[in-house]
Amino acid sequence: MTNQHYPHLFQPLKVGNKTINNRVLMGSMHTGLEDRPKNYPKLAEYFKQRAAGEAGIIVTGGIAPNIAGWVGPFSGFLKYGFQVKRHRLVTEAVHSVGGLICMQILHSGRYGYHPFNVSATDKQSPITPFKPKKLSDKKIHKQIKDFVNCARLAQKAHYDGVEIMGSEGYLINQFISPRTNDRDDDWGGSYENRTRFALEIVKQTRAAVGEDFIIIFRLSMLELVNNGSSIDEVIRLAQDLEQAGVSIINTGIGWHEARVPTIATMVPRAGFAWVTELIKQAVSVPLVTTNRINHPQVAEDIIASGKADMVSMARPFLADPELVKKSRLGQAQDINICIGCNQACLDHVFKNQMASCLVNPAACHETEFEKQPTQKSKNIAVVGAGMAGLSCATTLAERGHQVTLFEASDKIGGQFNLAAAIPGKEEFVHTINYFSHLLDKHGVTLKLNHPATASDLDGFDEVVIASGVVPRVPGIEGIDHDKVILYHDLLSGRKKAGHKVAVIGAGGIGFDVSEYLSVENPDQAQTIDEFCAEWGIDQSIQAPGGLVKAHDEKSAREITMLQRKTSKPGKGLGKTTGWIHRLSLKKKGIKTLTGVQYHKIDDQGLHITVKEQPQVLDVDHVVICAGQLSNKDLYQTDDHFHIIGGADVAAELDAKRAIKQGTELGLKL
Ligand code: FAD
Ligand code: NAP
Ligand code: SF4
Q1: What is the distance in A from the centroid of ligand 3 to the CA of 264?
Q2: Which residue has the least CA distance to atom 2 on ligand 3?
Q3: Where are the beta strands (DSSP E) in 183-229?
Q4: Mutation to probe ligand 2, out of 654, 657, 660 (largest number of atoms < 8 A from CB)
Q5: Mean per-residue pLDDT for 293-315?
Q6: Ligand 2 pocket check for 508: Cβ under 6 Å
Q7: pLDDT at 552 over 80
Q8: Could you report the per-residue pLDDT of 420-469, keeping only the tens digit for each?
Q9: Atom of ligand 1 nearest to the CA of 646
Q10: Does CATH number 3.40.50.2300 belong to domain 379-471+629-668?
Q11: What is the separation, in whole angstroms, between the first and last Cα of the chain?
Q12: Is the CB of 315 under 6 A from ligand 3?
């Protein structure tokens, strides 16, 4: 029956002898759970929830075919028969709720963060400290055999198929691309030789697993590195892969060493669906498109337009395991949207921590975050409707408590409203909207424009203080001068900055404020064309790797960002997004000064000393982003008082911690 909400998204798709119920593939994500045998019961529960949430077909995180293919030391690999048993926990869990699951085979090649890594080349990658060993002809055949063996073991473990990872700059991609394939034997040089490794893996795997086992190939369609593949080669390889026996081709965008954002929140929604569309007419197997597809309407539009046959959503399944089911039922407002921040997923993985999700701390911790209804409903006051207070209040109310939420301002969201005002962080508003929906759904009594006082809190069984933070105002002479603007006054629109601006503080907020000041219309989100122009992406992919000269747009204002430390500005920004913020501001010509001493602010501007040289920055305004202080006046050291979020600790506060602390307390009371 046609779905009335998203008719194209809920068209079934037949692949081999399997029917995928909808057009959503849960894309592969390394979570860390797949690396340790003891975590497989947790991994099974993680996938089971996503299958029960009606993901059409799931692809696991990457599993290496051998030790040389490890992503990092002791990461998950499948080479021996005894390893099959733990994978059966996963497949049985998924099949028990009617889901389909494929195992991704990922050989990291020279990206392997360990001394046993191998590649088509002996040239070290720019993102690992380990030089790879160049594979001999004999060793190449051995790697192919290991891929085939891995696929066969996956079949024994009852997976419905495998995804062969051929993109993102991993081993197969290292053979395909002239960037890393510097060989002059049968495996290098011509297109035929460079693609032989990929095609042999597919042909031999198909021969080993039979016709009905799904083989997805993740094809690197837009590499975003110099000397990468061009569209002609990509199309030809897609056709050759079809001939070799793949069932589905998935899209790969960008190598890990590329210096173009591909999934972070500033990438426009569905910002790379045009890439898959370029291949669409060339092959007849289903094509999956990917990157920054986080809402069912975006997915529906892609399928309806014929750009692709399926969409891959990966991080959105961390944010909400039930997103497909909610879409089918027309409950899009119930979906906890992935905001593309990377803070708890990719940033964790790159720091060797277990993945999770900023907006859903239960992700990958399913067995620890079970929401049990309360045995004894209490009357609970929560002070402050920022991320900490919202997550706590909604969790408490969902469990059956009577919750009153006091908010001093006229809206919920606290500091996150300011974050959502930053160009490229517009998506953050979805988290606020989601909480707004939950407040209604779970019957929280919300008192806006109501700064709670001590007397308001009398008579409650429990009191949660989530009153957040206030900006730190540094004791610089002239801090009361008209030129001075605190970041929250600027971002909330209460004050405007002139053309020449000094930004005091180069932390997360200093960077965001500089980004905000650097554009003419901070309210206007970038289009896909503007994004591609800014980052030098060739939308015809005629240029190798799809890279052309970037269009460096100059800042709308003259901005100087300052800090007292001598370390690199923005050093503490997110592991996988910090480089984007730093590069973006550099491209726009924003100046940074480190090792600064502040003296005073007066009509002349900001008086400072840098490297023992006194100077005056002739600026119209000085925006203060000098950190924050806890706002905890209402807190009492009493058993029925609890404190969370920025009110608890202001240092190194972010929404990830605020939501996690709020949710954990909400589960405990
Ligand atoms: P707050 O957000 O400060 O909320 C406290 C709330 O309590 C406020 O709404 C306040 O009005 C209310 N309140 C205070 N006193 C009372 C009272 N007496 N009675 C009733 N209500 C009261 N974090 C990230 O993780 N990622 C980012 O990319 C990111 N970007 C940011 C960008 C900017 C520009 C800013 C300013 C912040 C950013 N943050 C980011 C930080 C993040 O928004 C905060 O760390 C987080 O939201 C703090 O949540 P909180 O609930 O503890 O405090
Ligand atoms: P922050 O990262 O701690 O930076 C504070 C800045 O103020 C530093 O540059 C510091 O540099 C300066 N400073 C501190 N005390 C000062 C003083 N007395 N006088 C002058 N300068 C002073 O804090 P933030 O920028 O306010 O951000 C708050 C939190 O929000 C962060 O912890 C972050 O996690 C979160 N956030 C995250 C993102 C993100 O992209 N993930 C974005 C925005 C915010 P010096 O001490 O060297 O001068
Ligand atoms: Fe999405 Fe951020 Fe959650 Fe990662 S941490 S899944 S990017 S919301």
Answers
A1: 9
A2: 341
A3: 214-222
A4: 654
A5: 97
A6: yes
A7: no
A8: 999 999 999 999 999 999 999 999 999 999 999 999 999 999 999 999 99
A9: 52
A10: no
A11: 44
A12: yes
231 close to ligand 3 (CB < 6 Angstrom) = no
- The DSSP line for 65-94 is SSGGG-SSTT--B--SGGGHHHHHHHHHHH
Q: In angstroms, rounded to a whole number, what is the distance separating the alpha carbons of residues 609 and 595?
A: 8
Ligand showing the shortest atom-to-Cα distance for residue 435? 1
Which is the closest atom of ligand 2 to the Cα of 415? Answer: 30
- What are the angstrom distances between the C-alpha of 555 and each of 293, 455, 529, 569, 585? 29, 49, 19, 18, 8
Asked if residue 164 has pLDDT above 90, the reply is: yes
Taking the alpha carbons of 392, 370, 356, 420 in that order, is the dihedral positive or negative? negative
Q: Which two tokens stand for residue 603?
A: 């009509």
Taking domain 13-368, whether its CATH number is 3.20.20.70 is answered by yes
Pick the atom of ligand 3 nearest to 431's CA. 8
Q: What's the pLDDT tens digit per position in 14-29?
A: 998 899 999 999 999 9
Among the listed residues 40, 111, 159, 170, the single catalytic one is: 170
The CATH 3.40.50.720 domain(s) of the chain lie at 379-471+629-668
**CATH 3.20.20.70 domain extents, the chain:** 13-368
Determine whether 40 is an active site residue. Answer: no
In the CATH scheme, what is the code of domain 484-520+556-626? 3.50.50.60
Model pLDDT, residue 156: 98
Pocket of ligand 1 (CB under 6 A): 341, 343, 383-389, 406-409, 414-416, 418-419, 422, 451-452, 466-469, 491, 508-509, 512, 631, 634, 645-646, 653-656, 658
pLDDT in tens, 70-116: 999 999 999 999 999 999 999 999 999 999 999 999 999 999 999 99
Tens of pLDDT along 458-516? Answer: 999 999 999 999 999 999 999 999 999 999 999 999 999 999 999 999 999 999 999 99
Ligand 2: does its nearest atom lie under 6 Å from the Cβ of 474? yes
Enter the tokens of residue 508: 């997360």
pLDDT of residue 523: 85
Q: How many CA atoms does the CB half-sphere of 89 hold within 13 Å?
A: 14
| Percent of the chain surpassing pLDDT 70 | 100
Q: How far apart are CA 210 and CA 346, in angstroms?
A: 35
Q: Is 358 in the pocket of ligand 3 (CB under 6 A)?
A: yes
